[in-house]
TrEMBL record:
Organism: Thlaspi arvense
EC number, UniProt record: 1.14.19.2
Swiss-Prot/TrEMBL keywords: Fatty acid biosynthesis, Fatty acid metabolism, Iron, Lipid biosynthesis, Lipid metabolism, Metal-binding, Oxidoreductase, Transit peptide
Protein name: stearoyl-[acyl-carrier-protein] 9-desaturase
Catalytic activity line of the entry: octadecanoyl-[ACP] + 2 reduced [2Fe-2S]-[ferredoxin] + O2 + 2 H(+) = (9Z)-octadecenoyl-[ACP] + 2 oxidized [2Fe-2S]-[ferredoxin] + 2 H2O
Length: 136
């Protein structure tokens, strides 16, 4: 779940890449539009998982929120040096990893008798696959 909530960091990273930057926040370039659409979809993932955890009552949400705050405020340097090719290699692996992770969590949740979490994670995994395809 935490990886889905680091969205501001990811969008900031993508907006540093040469040829991809959305310097105005409303650029009509294809990459800028894609990045904003991707960000909107990824935002729903974090919201959904956070809401599920909150409603389940199984997690100390204060710790979760502190972890998210620390993660985002710490920033991230993936070593892409504003190079879009390196940025897309990184993003391709990241999208693949979240696809696999959410798919595995969906299967584990189903096996553990939690059909709601299984459906949530299965839906998120299905969203991640086209993201991976876009960056590869």
């Amino acid at each position: 779940m935490i990886t889905e909530d680091a969205l501001p960091t990811y969008q900031t990273m993508i907006n540093t890449l040469d040829g991809v930057r959305d310097e105005t926040g409303v650029s009509e370039s294809a990459w800028a539009k894609w990045t904003r659409a991707w960000t909107a979809e990824e935002n729903r993932h974090g919201d959904l998982l956070r809401t599920y955890l909150y409603l389940s009552g199984r997690v100390d949400m204060l710790i979760v929120e502190r972890t998210i705050q620390h993660l985002i405020s710490s920033g991230m340097d993936p070593g892409t040096e504003n190079n879009p090719y390196l940025g897309f290699v990184y993003t391709s692996f990241q999208e693949r990893a979240t696809f696999v992770s959410h798919g595995n969590t969906a299967r584990l949740a189903k096996d553990a008798g939690d059909p709601v979490l299984a459906r949530i994670c299965g839906t998120i995994a299905a969203d991640e696959k086209p993201h991976e395809n876009m960056y590869t």
